[in-house]
Amino acid sequence: MSDRVAKKSSKTIQRATLAATIDELGFEVMPCSFCHSKGLRCKMLERSSRCGECVRRGRSCDGSGVPVSALDRIVAESRRLDSEEQDAEEALRAERLALAEAQKASAEAQRRLDESWARLDRLRRQKRMLLSRGGDMVRRGLESLDEMEEADRREANAAGDPVDMVDWDAAFVVPPELPLDLSFSGGPSFLVDQGSFDGTRQASQGSEVQDFFDVPFFFLVFCFHVCGKPCRLGCWFKK
What we know:
- The structure is a single chain.
- The chain is mainly alpha-helical.
- The chain has 3 domains: about 1-55, no CATH class; about 70-160; about 170-235, no CATH class.
- The chain has helices at about 1-25, 35-40, 50-55, 70-100, 105-160, 170, 195-205; strands at about 25-30, 45, 215-225, 230-235.
- The chain has a two-stranded antiparallel ribbon with strand order 1-2.
- α4 (about 70-100) runs antiparallel to α5.
- The chain is elongated and about 85 Å long.
- Keywords: Coiled coil.
- This is Zn(2)-C6 fungal-type domain-containing protein.
């Protein structure tokens, strides 16, 4: 019983910590059902499927994840179009009144009337298009959440350490077809076969100065590319 209580307390603390992090680093989004019903600010982190309040309470979240800032411009543009639509309607009423009072079918008045109708129709079409695009943004925001969650799952399943895939034993094996006669009088002792070195030293007795390049030598360099793949460079020097 005590273990169950401790486990529950640990989960509560973890949820509270995550919720505090979301509240601190997250951005305000369109409120989910819970935050909307409670009048709370709904905040999320990028690629997160739950808001801070839903994480704190351990419940599911139906938030869209669309930032409020992305919709502010749509709201402002909609208000501007509403104002222009109202102005256009007032202008249309004024034109009709002037036409009724003048009791004449003036071509100029008809032209202005047609222009007012065209402007009103254009503004209404722009408003409908704007609202349609706003709905598309919200729908794409919901779809992108599912796609990001699926991508995270695929990356987590496919993740691996590329360093573990390198065969380090094979990387330092000298190919058998390379000559290994490394004996010369001036070379490093750890690269020279002792028997060959003794024979060279005896053959050089009687001459005051041994020609350094009379004996061929092989120099093997191992170098590693930045991607971790080994490559070998062999240099053969002979007089």
